[in-house]
Design goal:
The complex is a heterodimer of chains A (269) and B (330).
Chain A lengths: L2 H21 L33 H36 L2 H15 L3 H12 L4 H10 L3 H15 L2 H8 L4 H37 L11 H7 L9 H24 L11
Helix pairs in contact in A: 1-2, 2-3, 2-5, 2-6, 2-8, 2-10, 3-6, 6-8, 7-8, 8-9, 8-10, 9-10
Chain B lengths: L4 H28 L4 H4 L6 H10 L6 H13 L5 E2 L4 E2 H36 L4 H15 L2 H13 L19 H39 L2 H8 L4 H11 L1 H10 L1 H15 L4 H10 L3 H29 L16
Classes of the chains: A mainly alpha (269), B mainly alpha (330).
């Protein structure tokens, strides 16, 4: 992928949600005409058709991109922060604590995330968007923490880190000034993959009725609206799904492109 | 197999700790949630009866006492009572697990086999248009939410080909003859199994491709080819050398697999673990939910364990040291 296509992709992915209120032909939550415009297939007036409340699906998908993407971006920032902090702590702590933290991380990594999320969200009840962000963020940082720990382990034996330590640099400054800049490429790659998987996760949770609640439109929530008539009113599932696919594919491709050539062999998703 | 034993013991212990943690987490979630088993009986049950149930089941005891009692019961194999189905939770869980297994086992084998084939084919043709386009295709499958893939298949398989899209059997299943029953079951398996398989192929082919491509660039492959060894034979040897990462992944993606299956079961109304868990959540059926979490995490742990043993069989050098395992996510 060339730099130009990447830029273009980024512009589309970020530009559409920002511009959604101006592009969208209708109000996403407005029930246009419950009698005449109910569950219409795609036409020139309603590109993606209308749903069973006679709302315009195209407008809902456009606005849904804002909800879905902001949830993903917020959750990913949270999990990057937590993962990096935990990784730095693990790599720099005294041996005993460090080992304990590593074992704990092994444990976290092997608990199936979706089961925990489902159990949690079910018993907390319908989630507000900020709760969803917190839940997804708090259960998603384990892989990042592992990668950061591994990278820091490798960096700490490098000459520059030894030199800095020998000069008496405090740990906090060592991480902030000397190590973190080296981690940025790794974090950028992790972030793109995390955005892709978080979007898929949010969509799935909302589809199962445990994410974004109606009448708000996220891509998963729109598909949930269409779930009861999946085959007859296919347009309500097809188009938000295509949007999800486009964005997650773009993120995954971006991650692959950002990955330094050598690391391409160690596929980690 | 003897040399596996010490590693196996620590692995087993780690696995137990994971299951224990997951179970505890589930228990805590349930305790934090408003309402208990007695509340779940509903308003139409008189208050006195609900109080009596609460007293009988010890729901008024302090939390640590309840927790210990619950732990003791689980260890004894008593998974509690399913409020929504009015029978012990264990048979409910067993039925659900069997149903899930019927779906997952063929799909796992198929996706591992086909995924490895596809990945190997891509690695051999690395850099050509075949590799690029099939890579884009698998990336697309890998990127979409599982339920949406199921939707596409239902649209095509059910809408165009008339394959059954929901449940495990027809309404008339009980009245069929033996052959018709078999055919009925198989027909209901087609679409869900294809969905789960596609998800799996997307994962496995990625890893197989990158690991085999790495090995094909190794000097020993060049030497073997230059020495006049037949290309298919060299590729076979390279494939064996590239097997390890793929096997590692096969065990480690089990959480992702379980997660995918939860959602796919929901779309196809397949009465497996995922479907049962979601129904139990909706019905506030606490014991069934914790049971599902315990079984789900046990499967994950078993997968990791099995992978470790397989890895040692493939590469005996690993028997001596504890191997590092790459993280997976999804």
């Amino acid at each position: 992928m060339t730099r130009r296509t990447m830029l273009l992709l980024g512009l589309v992915v970020l530009g559409v949600p920002l511009a959604a209120p101006w592009i969208a032909p209708f109000d996403p939550e407005l029930q246009l005409d419950i009698v005449a415009l109910r569950s219409l297939p795609p036409s020139s007036a309603h590109w993606f058709g209308t749903d069973s409340y006679s709302r315009d699906v195209f407008s809902r998908v456009l606005h849904g991109s804002r909800v879905t993407l902001s949830i993903a971006l917020a959750a990913v920032s949270l999990l990057l922060l937590m993962g990096t902090a935990y990784g730095a702590l693990t790599a720099l702590a005294p041996r005993v604590i460090s080992n304990a933290l590593r074992r704990a991380l092994d444990l976290f990594l092997s608990v199936p995330r979706i089961l925990v999320l489902l159990a949690l969200s079910a018993f907390i009840g319908p989630l507000a968007v900020w709760q969803l962000v917190l839940l997804v963020g708090f259960t998603g940082w384990f892989a990042v923490a592992r990668q950061v720990t591994d990278a820091l382990d490798a960096l700490l034996v490098e000459d520059f880190a030894l030199a800095a330590r020998a000069l008496g640099v405090r740990s906090s400054r060592l991480v902030w000034r000397h190590l973190l800049p080296h981690l940025l490429p790794l974090l950028a790659v992790s972030a793109t993959f995390a955005v892709a998987s978080t979007i898929a996760l949010e969509t799935t949770l909302s589809y199962l009725g445990m994410g974004v609640q109606p009448p708000e439109a996220s891509w998963g929530a729109i598909m949930r609206d269409g779930a009861s008539a999946m085959t007859s009113e296919w347009w309500m599932t097809l188009f938000p799904g295509l949007a999800t696919m486009a964005v997650t594919m773009a993120c995954n491709a971006l991650g692959d492109a950002l990955r330094p050539p050598r690391a391409a062999s160690q596929v980690a998703s | 197999m003897l040399r596996l034993l010490p590693g196996l013991a620590t692995r087993l212990l780690q696995g137990l700790i994971v299951v224990f943690t997951a179970a505890t987490l589930a228990f805590i979630c349930l305790e934090l949630a408003p309402g208990d088993q007695a509340t779940a009986l509903g308003e139409q049950v008189p208050l006195a009866v609900r109080e009596r149930v609460r007293a009988l089941r010890g729901l008024n005891d302090p939390l640590p006492v309840q927790y210990l009692r619950w732990m003791r019961d689980i260890v004894r194999g008593d998974f509690g009572w399913s409020v929504s189905q009015q029978r012990p939770a264990l048979p409910v869980l067993l039925e659900a697990s069997t149903n899930s297994l019927m779906l997952v086992a063929p799909a796992f084998v198929l996706s591992l086999g086909l995924g490895m084939l596809l990945g190997a084919w891509q690695a051999v043709h690395a850099g050509t248009w075949r590799d690029r386009w099939s890579g884009r295709l698998t990336l697309a499958v890998y990127s979409v939410p599982e339920f949406w893939l199921a939707f596409l298949l239902i649209l095509f398989g059910h809408g165009q080909l008339g394959l059954p899209a929901t449940g495990m059997v027809n309404d008339m299943h009980a009245y069929y003859g033996l052959l018709d029953r078999l055919q009925d079951r198989l027909a209901h398996l087609v679409l869900p199994v294809i969905t789960v398989t596609l998800v799996g192929i997307g994962i496995f082919s990625r890893y197989q491709r990158s690991s085999l491509q790495d090995v094909l660039q190794q000097p020993f492959v060049r030497t073997a080819l230059a020495g006049g060894l037949a290309t298919p034979r060299v590729r076979w040897l390279a494939w064996r050398a590239a097997l390890l990462p793929v096997l590692t992944v096969a065990g480690l993606v089990l959480p992702a697999f379980v997660a995918g299956v939860v959602v796919i079961e929901q779309v196809f109304l397949w009465p497996g673990l995922g479907h049962t868990m979601l129904m139990a959540i909706a019905a506030r059926d606490a014991d069934v939910v914790t049971g599902c979490v315990i079984i789900g995490s046990s499967i994950t742990v078993l997968g990791a364990l099995l992978t470790d043993m397989l890895r040692v069989l493939v590469d005996p050098r690993l028997a001596t040291g504890v191997s590092r395992i790459e993280p997976t996510e999804r």
